[in-house]
Amino acid sequence: MQSWIDRLNQSELPALAAVVQDLQRLTRQQNASVQQLADVLLRDASLTSKVLRVGNSSYYNPSQETIKTISRAIVMIGFENVRLISLSVSLIDGLLDHAPRRQLQELLARSFHAAVQARNIAGYVLTKHEEEVFIATLLHEVGELAFWGCGGAQADELAAALASGEMAHDQPVERIIGTSFRQLNLGLIKSWNIGELASFAHGSTNLRDPAVHAVSLGARIGVAALNGWGCPEMGELVKELADFSGISEEDAMQQIFASADEAVNVATTFGAGRLGKLIPSTDPELVQLQQAQRAASLLQPNLLLMQQAMQDLGMMASSRSEVALILDALLKGLHEGAGLERVMLAVLADQQTAFRAKRVVGEQTQPWIDNFVLPGDPSGQAHIFSYVLRLRQPLWMGVPASYNLEDLVTLPLRQHLGKGMFFIAPLMAGTREIGVLYADNRISDRALKHEQFIAFQRFTQLAGRCLEALSKRS
């Protein structure tokens, strides 16, 4: 843990570390003056302007009295608040300055959401210190934030290990970084002198302190919201908030919704507006979209499930199986096994004159069943579905090798499917044309992988053998 703290302080975030060290030095001096803090901040014009912007926001300055200098900001919102705002803004700038990892952006968005929840919860039970609660919650996961921002090759290794889903979350973390994120958070909180409140909130024995309880509750709401506002964990947290603040559960839920909406604006105030789309929305349509995107981002190839689906199709090719069972195994293997987010089988229908969606799987695919109809007559407007059926070869669209076929992705197709990479292959029963298989990762917009294309081709071949065997027996 100490080696990671030294690394984060000394090499990965040198500008931030210098600000942190100067701010630490001031807090150790009982007679530190307003001017000394102003002098530290004024060395960085960008940091100064951002601290003033935060200080002038309605969040910190509800009276809307214009603050033009750091000295005035310290007088208006307090020495400690300006110090902690400076630390927060420095951290956010340092981490988001380059192309940040998805894990960093998601964690920072969650931190902003949790911080606003905690501050508003504190408003029910505290007459002051709400801003301290906000900063303590914002920096509650500071060690993990710094790791994802500055962990280099080890962060890449951990991201890959977590994505595989082969082990519980804590195992790859401790194996790769040598300590837990909780210990790294606590170590950096102490090293950067973020305060006892942030430290205490990591324990479960200090919840009798209202400020600690507010930080803990806000942090847990931030995590639970990612699983949906109606998840069981959120229900328990609503009850806890109602008991803690002395309001009804209905009012507690409305307070949580209002804080989630407010968090988007607060993130913008701190210069992290790009994170707004990652904060759970309370708009019903956006809630559904965000949950779909999160589910898609969690979907990963499952080698064991994929192998089982292939074995099942292999057995069906040599035994009498119903079409429905063949298609179930096919779509499950592609979606849950190969990790493809949206899969569609479009069959030739209406006396072979049109493609119609027959089976679909994945988020946002149900409308295809009702609406996806594509003319199948090759003498009409050419498109990629009729082309691939004539070609009788699978294609990976959106890569350089297929750029010359982009004109075949017609406007009606884009309206149904969206833009981006996709796999497409003919489904045959011997020489008989059944239809076309389509798959993409459009929900999360993750790039398709070579291994997924290999699996897509293999599943298409196996399904074709099953259907050929079935047609021969018929």
TrEMBL record:
Coiled coil: none annotated. It comes from the Bacteria. Residues 13-208 form the HDOD domain. InterPro entries: GAF-like_dom_sf, HDOD, RNase_Y/CdgJ. Gene3D superfamilies: 3.30.450.40, Hypothetical protein af1432. This is HDOD domain-containing protein.
